[in-house]
Amino acid sequence: MVTAETKMVTIETKMVTTETKMVTIETKMVTIETKMVTTETKMVTSETKMVTTKTKMVTTETKMVTTETKMDK
Question: Gene3D superfamilies from the xrefs (predicted)?
């Protein structure tokens, strides 16, 4: 009887170990996905900054053209 109970406890322990490993794997996957989202967010932020910079350049060029036009008159 003790042997049968010991075997059951061993099986249950193995099941818990397997479940723990699965949770660890899932946690690693979530961590990887989070890192990917962070990277994508950084890329979008960089692109937004570039667009902002380009807009500022166009605004500056427009002001220069306006100034030149006024001077020509």
Answer: 1.20.5.170
- Does the pTM surpass 0.70? The reply is no
Q: How many domains does the chain have?
A: 1
pLDDT tens figures, 6-61: 999 999 999 999 999 999 999 999 999 999 999 999 999 999 999 999 999 999 99
C-alpha to C-alpha distance for 2 and 9, rounded to whole angstroms: 10
Query: What is the extent of the structural domain holding 43?
Result: 1-73
Per-residue buried b or exposed e for 32-65, using 16+ beta carbons within 10 Å of the residue's own CB: eeeeeeeeeeeeeeeeeeeeeeeeeeeeeeeeee
User: N- to C-terminal Cα distance for the chain?
Assistant: 108
